[in-house]
Write a structure and sequence with these properties.
This protein has about 425 residues and is α+β, with helices and mostly antiparallel strands. It has 2 domains: about 230 residues, Ribosomal Protein S5, domain 2 (2-Layer Sandwich); about 180 residues, GHMP kinase, C-terminal domain (Alpha-Beta Plaits, 2-Layer Sandwich). It is about 45% helix and about 20% strand. A hairpin with a 7-residue loop joins β6 and β7. α5 crosses α6. The N and C termini lie close together (about 10 Å).
């Protein structure tokens, strides 16, 4: 673990540039950000002389929109926006974490039981991760950390999952020599979110943040999902990835989100399964007459979306691994159209006059034509779209979308190969 002065010297003399360049497109900005974070850490914890630096990326969903909750497949990727931390072990059994812009969080490891008053807080996540690690036989201990994040909240880039994975990664490296597998780190993080925090999330977000790069996950066996990291370098694609926040009110959308999984499962139950992965599109078609009397029409359309998008993930993975990016993009567009027409999660049927997502998708088609791709990003109903834009058109696309949706609503990002790591400068 290097001394703080050594870290600063390596950044000042350029020795750390190659390491930072592997994670960030702007090395100077990354260095300044890290210097500022080290300064915050020193002021908060002046007694610490040696520290480690950690980085955990956000993630973007690329294929398989709302397929995971019916035991389907997804394709996701880590992005070059991250949670960055400076941390040091502590002799006591306390974890103290400052996150830039938020109050201090302190956990005493002498008590790892769930605390009802901590639900929906960062304290619950830290306590839950520590408890699960201990239960699984891993080492835990006190530490001091200062975090900063440029993963925007509400953007669909999984800022909360990145935070969880960061805490687990710090414990992994400070007390377990980094030996805990990235997928297990994700499972531990999900456990904390589900049980201590109180949010019934899937595993896609944490897995992608932890593993990095393009990642495909098969949830056929939800207890033991199959995770495969693709060998594809997005930097060679010739495209930029742009996220557009279209606005819209996220309040009172719980009913919309619950109906997605619930309606798909209602079709599965009528066909003798509990989730759609246990049935087939051919079964749905063969039983349409009976199904229409047992479930609503939208549920059947959403089932069609599931089967199509689940299979698209398989095809997208094969195309990326063959380097056929242009053909891959056609499937991205097809996924977006399926979410719009069949899954119907691009706007809320209870508020049909507010259609920021569908408007952004329609504008993207006008601006990009036959080149590029666009789709709803994440849960839908309100929020963001994702667009793959030819690099030579990216600046123009970003400016035109900013003019429509606001100057801070549009940002180009990239896909990074590294997952949640200790940054050895």
């Amino acid at each position: 673990m290097p001394a703080i002065e050594t870290l600063i010297k390596r950044m000042d003399d350029g020795s750390a540039d190659a390491v930072l360049a592997a994670l960030y497109s702007d090395v100077n900005a990354a260095g300044n950000r890290l210097r500022g974070l080290i300064g915050h850490f020193q002021r908060a914890f002046p007694e610490a002389q040696e520290v480690s630096v950690f980085s955990t990326p956000g993630r973007t969903e690329v294929g398989g929109n709302h397929t995971d909750h019916n035991a389907g497949r997804v394709l996701a990727a880590a992005v070059d926006l991250d949670v960055l931390a400076v941390a040091a072990p502590a002799q006591d059994r306390r974890i103290i974490v400052y996150s830039e812009g938020y109050p201090k969080v302190e956990i005493d490891l002498a008590n790892l039981e769930m605390q009802a008053e901590e639900r929906y807080t960062s304290s619950a996540l830290i306590r839950g991760i520590s408890a699960r690690m201990a239960t699984l036989g891993h080492q835990i201990g006190g530490f001091r950390a200062y975090l900063t994040s440029d993963v925007p909240k509400g953007s669909g880039l999984s800022s909360s999952a990145a935070y969880e994975v960061m805490i687990a990664t710090i414990l992994n490296h400070l007390y377990n020599a980094g030996k805990i597998d990235p997928v297990e780190i994700a499972v531990i993080s999900q456990y904390a979110e589900n049980n201590y925090f109180g949010k019934p999330s899937g595993l896609m977000d944490q897995t992608t943040c932890s593993v990095g790069g393009f990642v495909t996950i098969d949830f056929k066996d939800a207890a033991h999902p199959l995770v495969h990291k693709l060998n594809y370098d997005f930097n060679q694609s010739g495209y930029a990835l742009v996220i557009v926040e279209t606005g819209g009110d996220h309040a009172d959308l719980n009913e919309d989100y619950a109906a997605l999984a619930g309606e798909m499962k209602s079709v599965a139950r009528e066909l003798g399964g509990s989730v759609l992965r246990q049935t087939s599109k051919e079964q749905v078609v063969a039983n349409l007459g009976r199904l229409r009397g047992a479930v609503n029409d939208r549920a059947i359309l959403r089932a069609f979306h599931f089967f199509d998008d689940d299979q698209r993930v398989v095809e997208q993975v094969a195309l990326l691994e063959k380097g056929q990016f242009e053909t891959f993009l056609k499937l991205v567009v097809a996924s977006g159209r399926s979410s719009w027409m069949l899954n119907q999660n691009c706007y809320s049927s209870r508020n049909p006059t507010e259609q920021g997502i569908t408007l952004a998708m329609a504008i993207s088609e006008v601006l990009l034509g036959e080149r590029g791709a666009w789709r709803v990003h994440g849960g839908g109903f309100a929020g963001t779209i994702q667009a793959f834009v030819p690099r030579e058109q990216a600046a123009d696309y970003v400016e035109k979308m900013k003019a429509i949706f606001g100057g801070t609503a549009v940002y180009p990002i990239s896909i990074r190969g590294a997952g949640s790591i200790r940054v050895d400068l």
